[in-house]
Design goal:
Blueprint: E1 3-7, E2 10-15, E3 28-34, E4 40-42, E5 45-47, E6 49-56, H1 59-70, E7 75-81, E8 83-87, E9 93-99, E10 143-146, E11 152-157, E12 163-164, E13 167-168, E14 173-177, E15 185-188, H2 190-198, E16 208-212, H3 214-217, E17 223-228, E18 239-244, E19 268-272, E20 278-280, E21 284-293, E22 316-322, E23 328-330, E24 340-341, E25 346-351, E26 359-369, E27 372-376, E28 382-386
Parallel strand pairs: 20-28
Antiparallel strand pairs: 1-18, 2-6, 3-6, 3-17, 4-5, 6-16, 7-15, 7-18, 8-17, 9-14, 9-16, 10-11, 12-13, 19-21, 21-25, 22-23, 22-26, 24-25, 26-27, 26-28
Length: 387
């Protein structure tokens, strides 16, 4: 297993209603359609008031993680944004993310600034107001924008000619929401990341533009979704969540020779034997899980039978929960949070810089024994991340 979170290096949201305003230091990223406000005019007629988010992740960090930490082509990347509040949501809607085709500057503005700040990206400009406009004509192949030729709103890639393992890489990503679904964004963007890292087709990492799909964004109903930005004072900044399988298993226990050492019933006790109270946020740490039968069979041996360890089955997974909120920071995942196994214990690796510092977290384990799913949740296996 492995899960790594890379936090954004710059973000902002851009407003068609105030086409030169910058919001680079605001705590919120607004993605919305403000119904009935038609303050912008163009050759194509009045246009709706729309907000879109721009988010970028450091390309050197991303390349280093994929090349040196992940070190496999079998990985999955998701864009994570966490909802702050929302209003007037339709029963079903889609939020889309595309790779931005121009470089842009975050700026230092906030939505409440008066006078409004214009020293970074906005609806009309990719940089400081008066310079570096978003392209509106003469687009390259697979590059587009919206609102015609006079307004802006970012530019982005909609396709590519590049392939990975025979499949065409598609830079368009989207997530469909319905009435009962979680409203946080958890969107697969693996193809875009592959395009960024190869530089194929001229697609370089200028981040994402995140927007409502056209049917909602250009619709007549007010729709508002607000997400926490990198300037939030909460534990919910934007992130790229990178997952891959780095679990390792001693084949001795898979081939059958060592099956006597595998747990075969729910009557077992598992403990984290090397859990520390604190970890620095730069650490990479292997947590060790040791297991024994709750009531071990008697045997003729010199040590206590309670010291005889067993191993959890290969269908065993780990998770991390925020101790205060109870939210799953890393949830159980049958593909990406598998426990590794050696002759003496199960174990798994955690990258501490993907966890918010100065908070407490709880470790959990889930295993499947026969047809029974068992969660090991002692309620006491806590640790704190410190700067």
């Amino acid at each position: 297993m492995a899960v790594y979170k890379l936090f954004s290096e710059q973000d902002a949201f851009i407003r068609s209603q105030y086409p030169a305003q910058n919001t680079g230091r605001d705590e919120i990223l607004e993605i919305s359609n403000i119904n009935g406000i038609n303050q912008l005019s163009s050759a194509e007629g009045d246009l709706p008031a729309v907000n879109r988010a721009l988010i970028q992740f450091d390309n050197s960090d991303l390349n280093n993680i994929i090349t040196n930490t992940v070190a496999t082509s079998s990985y999955q990347v998701s864009l994570r944004l966490y909802l702050a509040n929302a209003g007037n949501l339709p029963l079903d809607y889609t939020i889309q993310a595309y790779p931005v085709s121009q470089s842009w500057d975050m700026g230092t503005g906030r939505i409440a600034d008066d006078p409004k700040t214009d020293n970074g990206c906005s609806w009309t400009f990719a940089g400081e107001s008066g310079s570096n406009r978003w392209t509106t004509t003469g687009f390259s192949n697979y590059v587009t924008a919206s609102f015609g030729s006079t307004v802006g709103g970012s530019t982005w890639y909609t396709g590519s000619t590049e392939t990975f393992e025979g499949d065409l890489l598609d830079p368009e990503s989207g997530q469909v929401f319905d009435y009962t679904s979680n409203k946080d964004i958890n969107m697969f963007v693996t193809d875009t990341v592959r395009l960024w890292l190869t530089g194929s087709g001229g697609i370089v990492n200028n981040g994402f533009v995140v927007k409502l799909d056209d049917t909602v964004e250009f619709g007549t109903n007010f729709v508002s979704t607000n997400f926490f930005s990198m300037d939030t004072h909460t534990i919910y900044p934007p992130a790229l969540e990178i997952k891959w399988d780095d679990s390792m298993v001693d084949n001795y226990f898979i081939t059958g020779s060592g099956t006597g050492s595998i747990v075969t019933s729910s009557a077992f006790i598992s403990k984290f034997t090397n859990l520390q109270s604190t970890f620095e946020d730069s650490m990479i740490y292997n947590f060790e899980v040791k297991t024994r039968d709750t009531f071990p069979a008697r045997s003729f041996q010199t040590q206590s039978v309670y010291l005889n360890t067993k191993l959890l089955p290969t269908s065993s997974y780990w998770a991390i929960k925020d101790a205060k909120t109870g939210e799953m920071v890393v949830d159980f995942d049958s593909n990406f949070t598998k426990l590794s196994m050696n002759s003496g214990s199960n174990y798994f690796k955690v990258y501490m810089d993907g966890l918010e510092p100065e908070r407490y977290y709880q470790l959990m384990v889930q295993t499947i024994v026969g047809d029974e799913t068992i969660v090991v949740d002692s309620g006491t296996d806590y640790f704190k991340i410190v700067r």
